[in-house]
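Two entries, shown back to back:
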Amino acid sequence: MKNNQSELFHQINQFTRHFSKLLNENLVPLGLYSAQWAIIYRLKTEGSSTQKELSSYLGVEAPTMTRTLGRLEKSGWIARIPGTDKREKKIKLTDAALTEYPNWLKAVRSSEEQVLHRITNTEIVQMLDLMKRMKDNFY
């Protein structure tokens, strides 16, 4: 008999890997990777953030975030601007990223729709509730 708890986490891990691969297949032709999309999405929906805030939100170590932000900056998708604390800069989307955002969003929505085929809105709401409750257990 399978341990449901272990199977749940195995399936979450497998789903995440496969969905990241699907996202990359749809985003790479547009000049973006799924890990970069997570940052772009956060900046678009929540506004400018510090590197520390982005690292905390995404659960990513500082060196990884530094590399990813460097690539986004080199591509012209983000800019660093002075924050209220002079020691820490805020990161914001550039005009070029805001122009490209609808194209990225369309690719992401296409990936989501493919995966959510035959999944009801009620099931989505239930999953969101479960994921939030599980995430709250980290803190």
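entry 2 starts here
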Amino acid sequence: MEYNILLYYCYARIDDLEAYRDEHHLFCIENNIRGRIIVSSEGLNGTVSGLKEDCEKYMAYVKSDPRFADTEFKVDEHHEHAFAKINVRAKDEIVHSGLKHINPRLKTGKHLEPEEFRALKDEEDVVILDVRSNYEHELGHFKNAVRLDIDNFRDFPAKVSELAHLKEKKVLTYCTGGIKCEKASAFLLEQGFKDVYQLHGGIIKYGMEAGGEDFEGKCYVFDNRLAVEVNQVNPKIVSKCFVCGTASDRMVNCANPDCNEHVPICESCGWEMEGACSEVCKTHPQKRPYNGTGYYQKNTNGYNPYKGFYQKPNASKIKSVLHGKTHP
């Protein structure tokens, strides 16, 4: 396959936030990298796609900055771009948690490589904790994992009180790529949990390096694939079609943009409901055309890749920063 999809994050202090956001954005434009990237004073978080050679340039670019030299990329192959455009945003956090006081560089759970996680997960005194949102863990999760009723990761801190009875256990946290666990595991330690671990590289790396054993269902991803296979050892479907209730791990975003729920819908119901999750959504006047995938690309008419630059509209000045020296 000609394209790669990259998933990565790096906690590192960024003082020149606005200038770096512009520089990073411009590099992506000039190298045909597309996707979603968050730049914060606490680091980077991104999912991007591009031709393999362009992705190699991008990874080298990120790692050439000493602040991000130890960034670990999860690399997957794909037959096309997984995104239609590039979006680089400056935000308060690289993943919204409300735990701004936690610096994973200073405090976090013990990292477990995929094979270490696989060897430890079935021990008697171990609890596996999913820190993702409902629609993610309903599609797929580790066998016997504790799953919290949360709609967003920012709800996680308020739910930790429900886990108080597990404080003396070994708690193994996991998420899609590892970024949420950095703060989730640190927060558990802060709340008095004694022995906390995290799956380094998340579900994606576990599938690549440990065969995905005992991960049941599919893993929700934040690109146009929506869901990916993980388990090559003992796969199992755990989700059900939102419409008819039959077993289905086919993820769909409801065709009604005002709903846009992320739910499993089998292929038959997908066509019958025209990509909608209910009759109400099926008859919604703004319902999007259904093409069988359940992914709806945002309208890119009038898309300006330079939109959002802090130093706008003088893009030539930004280019001189990029080409004149490696980092502003």
